[in-house]
Design brief:
Elements: H1 26-34, H2 36-39, H3 47-55, H4 62-83, E1 96-97, E2 103-104, H5 113-120, H6 140-167, H7 172-206, H8 214-221, H9 227-244, H10 255-259, H11 264-290, H12 297-310, H13 317-326, H14 333-348, H15 356-371, H16 379-382, H17 393-415, H18 419-424, H19 426-449, H20 455-490, H21 505-514, H22 524-536, H23 542-548, H24 554-570, H25 580-592, H26 600-612, H27 619-635, H28 638-654, H29 697-701, H30 707-717, H31 726-731, H32 734-740, H33 757-762, H34 769-782, H35 785-845
Antiparallel strand pairs: 1-2
């Protein structure tokens, strides 16, 4: 089928121009005059017939021709509108008001395309304008007239546009608007970045393999100048990595593996793993750089600790562990607690990493203690208390060895059988061998995939961790012994605070007490000797021990005694050591105890382990401790006195002859030892002669304000008679008594409201007990409150003055001692200079 033919309209006729508008040059006029014969036919032309001939269209109806002409007119009118349109800057669109009140609008007409084309094509006669297609070419005169008109219009437009620019001046409102626009753009930019982070994270979690490259975009956002956006980016990347990291350690392919031909899925997986690993490495480097900046420190450590806790088996674990353990003793409480909790979770959850992370962490902590010379925060060593060691790891290996030996014996027996039976059982053996091979292959594959290592591997890791832990503990003990001896010799006259130089001793002793059953027997004797020296103060002689005892607190010395007894209990068969020195130290430490300064729980534990759980006690020693505990319970609160009385009752139940101390004879107990007189100031319990004394303290303790203490004293004083609570009180340990009767628990103290019978017996003749109680209450009501306040204020002022006097005396003693040291130093300098002067004189004489 042929397509319809297009109707081509004739070109538009040139516009009619008046004679005034036509400009003819003189050259043209001269040419026409000279050549009239050639130009005479122009006057005889019939213009009407020419226009009819030009405008006719063959084989077209009049209606269609009219429609086509109308379309052409519409297009031309639209072009004229576009060309004559006004182009105005939106900023200058507002009117300007002058001083007279008139409004001036800025209007600048657009430059027409025809004008631009005419300017470009001036002087070129043969080129046509693209806008004038379908139009008859203009003559030279018409072109010149057009150009002149357009130049005049351009000059007018330039003048009009130049005038408002001079009039407009920048106002302060414009500057404020510019600042507001900048703020709005910054807020919009931050919001857009937040939305972008959310979108990237959601896309990654939805399809990680397809959108793995967006991790780099998220990491790029973390380099922003805005701190809030950086923190959001770090936390969002943390959540994404926790979800995306696989359950295995990524191994990048080698060069040979990269050269091999693989499938598309393998290539895709390699690309995914390599991009994940590279971005994870860059993320860790970013965190390591930001953890040194105070503004990003908490966020960076939160990300590091959560990653190490969530994926301890993944790549770059060593770098994370190094950062955490380097800041395990940080001065910032938040950072230190985060690091310690992360390390504790590593020790408790060994199933995630198979025990490798624990070995690395313990080694790093041991090296850190060594480099810092044992001057760390106690929390850095208390982490070791979360470790768990298995003693039954060697049994499985022994059972495997026994099973192998049995299999070898059975094989030997089968070799000695008859050849007939061998032929019959060949088929069964082949089946069994094939089954055994498949089982071994399956077991090997399972071991390669499973997190839990072999028994031998676990034993190796456990021995390494134990050696590192005990190495740190022994280093701390050695450091305390050396430094205490040095301080006691250098500063014998100065009083030194005990808690400053040994921050790691208390957690070290706790760890030794917990893992005492795992210590090697070869180190037992050295350990007990060092503990004995520390408990006595760090010196062998009495003078040095008295000086060094100021360097250690009472609770630390008590912990040394506790650790020694725990070591002895766990290795009773292997060791044969006399612990008499520790009893002597406990006997002397009881008097040095102060409730506000020292820990009562440690004292109760020492009483339980050393006195209650010990099987054999000398009668003199037991009596000395009974007497010392009775005097101790008089001086302190209900919790300490209750723990001491429970121990006292336990000693009296064990040693029947010590109950003679309960007698009230004037000359002391009926059973006296080698020492006939009691010496309360003796340092050795065996030389105190406590059997010659009487427990007169019980009479005073029976009037104790706490009902539990008074009931305990009544049960002790009536040891021979049966008591209702006797079985219960004998079962209670000193630790339980201390915890139950401490003032932290308000339930433990319930004072009785009844009046005691002893007061009623004294007032037989005066009247009934009710009347006496009423009189007391009346007297209490009649007391003036102002007088009581004055007396109390005077009393407390006196106590304050006493404390101030003590403080000033201590300062005076320090200054005098420092002056004496300075004078001794001067004397030593003078004595060193004298022989030099003598030598110089001898040389001058010669």
């Amino acid at each position: 089928m042929r397509g319809k033919k297009k109707i081509i309209l004739p070109p538009q006729l040139p516009p009619d121009l008046s004679e005034d508008e036509i400009e003819v040059s003189d050259e043209d006029k001269d040419f026409v005059k000279e050549n009239r014969d050639y130009a005479g036919f122009l006057s005889k032309l019939d213009t009407k017939s020419i226009t009819k001939h030009v405008t006719r269209v063959a084989d077209v109806k009049e209606d269609t021709l009219e429609a086509l002409y109308e379309q052409r007119r519409r297009k031309s009118s639209q072009k004229e509108k576009e060309e004559s349109g006004i182009e105005v800057d939106p900023v200058d669109a507002l009117p300007i008001k002058d001083f007279s009140g008139n409004l001036h609008y800025l209007t600048v007409p657009k430059k027409s395309k025809a004008f631009e084309n005419d300017l470009e094509g001036t002087g070129q006669d043969g080129e046509d304008d693209p806008a004038d297609k379908g139009i008859v070419k203009l003559t030279k005169a018409e072109r010149r007239a057009k150009l002149k008109k357009l130049k005049k219009e351009a000059k007018k437009q330039g003048k009009d546009s130049a005038t408002p620019e001079v009039e407009v001046e920048p106002t302060p409102q414009a500057a404020v608007l510019a600042e507001v626009k900048e703020d709005l753009t910054a807020e919009e930019a931050s919001e857009s970045k937040k939305h972008k982070l959310a979108e990237l994270g959601i896309a990654l979690l939805a399809d990680p393999e397809a959108n793995i490259k967006s991790l780099k975009d998220m990491l790029q956002i973390c380099k922003d100048r805005d701190h809030s956006i950086v923190k959001l980016g770090l936390l969002s990347l943390l959540a994404v990595f926790k979800d995306l990291i696989p359950g295995y350690r990524i191994r990048l392919p080698t060069e040979k593996e990269l050269e091999m031909k693989v499938s598309k899925d393998v290539k895709k997986m390699r690309l995914y793993e390599s991009t994940l690993l590279s971005t994870y490495k860059a993320y860790l480097q970013k965190l390591a750089a930001l953890e040194k900046q105070p503004s990003f420190q908490h966020v960076a450590f939160r990300c590091i600790c959560t990653l190490l806790d969530a994926v301890p088996y993944f790549n770059f674990r060593e770098s994370l562990l190094g950062i955490v353990i380097r800041n395990i003793s940080s001065s910032d409480d938040v950072v230190r607690k985060l690091c310690c909790s992360t390390v504790k979770s590593l020790f408790t959850n060994e199933g995630k990493h198979g025990g490798e992370a624990t070995v690395d962490a313990v080694r790093l902590i041991a090296d850190y203690v060594k480099t810092r010379n044992c001057q760390l925060h106690p929390d850095s060593i208390e982490v070791f208390l979360s470790l768990s060691f298995y003693e039954d790891l060697g049994r499985a290996a022994k059972q495997d060895d026994k099973n192998k030996a049995k299999n070898k014996r059975s094989k030997k027996r089968k070799d000695h059988e008859d050849p007939r039976q061998m032929k019959e059982n060949d088929k069964k053996r082949s089946r069994q061998e094939s089954l055994m091979k498949t089982r071994e292959e399956v077991a090997a594959d399972y071991k390669a995939v499973a997190y839990t290592p072999d028994v031998l591997e676990r034993r190796r890791m456990q021995t390494e961790t134990l050696s590192a832990v005990f190495e740190t503990y022994f280093r701390i003990l050695k450091h305390t012994m050396q430094s205490s001896a040095a301080r006691s010799e250098a500063n014998s006259s100065l009083s030194i605070s005990a808690s400053e130089p040994y921050p790691l001793l208390a957690p070290c002793l706790k760890g030794l007490g917990k893992f005492s059953h795992l210590i090697d027997i070869d180190f037992m004797s050295d350990l007990i000797n060092s503990l004995r020296k520390l408990a006595s103060g760090g010196g062998d002689t009495e003078k040095t021990s008295e000086k060094c005892s100021k360097c250690l607190t009472v609770s630390e010395r008590l912990q040394c005694c506790i650790v020694a007894f725990k070591v002895m209990k766990s290795n009773l068969d292997a060791l044969n050591v006399d612990l008499q020195d520790f009893f002597v130290q406990l006997y002397n430490i009881i008097l040095e105890y102060r409730p506000g300064r020292d820990q009562g729980e440690v004292l109760a534990e020492a009483l339980k382990i050393m006195l209650c759980e010990d099987r054999q006690h000398d009668m003199q020693k037991a009596a000395a401790f009974v007497k010392r505990l009775a005097t101790f319970s008089l001086c302190f609160g209900s919790a300490e006195s209750m723990a001491a009385l429970v121990t006292l009752k336990h000693l009296l139940l064990k040693n029947v002859k010590c109950r003679n101390l309960l007698e009230n004879d004037a000359g002391g107990g009926s059973v006296s030892g080698l020492i006939a007189k009691y010496h309360p100031e003796a340092s050795d319990p065996n030389l105190s002669g406590a059997l010659a004394s009487v427990l007169w303290e019980l009479n005073l303790l029976s009037k104790h304000y706490h009902p539990g203490v008074s009931s305990m004293i009544s049960s002790i004083s009536s040891m021979n008679t049966a008591h209702q609570n006797q079985v219960y009180l004998s079962i209670i340990t000193p630790q339980q008594a201390f915890m139950d009767f401490s003032l932290d628990r308000p339930e433990s103290f319930k004072p009785n409201g009844d009046i005691k019978k002893s007061n009623n017996k004294r007032k037989r003749g005066t009247g009934s007990s009710i009347s006496s109680g009423i009189e007391l209450s009346e007297d209490a009501i009649s007391i003036d409150e102002n007088e009581v306040k004055k007396k109390l204020s005077a009393h407390f002022m006196l106590l304050h003055d006493i404390k101030e006097n003590q403080r000033l005396r201590a300062e005076l003693e320090r200054t005098t001692s420092s002056i004496q040291l300075y004078e001794d130093y001067k004397k030593q300098k003078k004595s060193a200079k004298k022989p030099q002067t003598k030598k110089s004189k001898i040389l001058t004489v010669e």
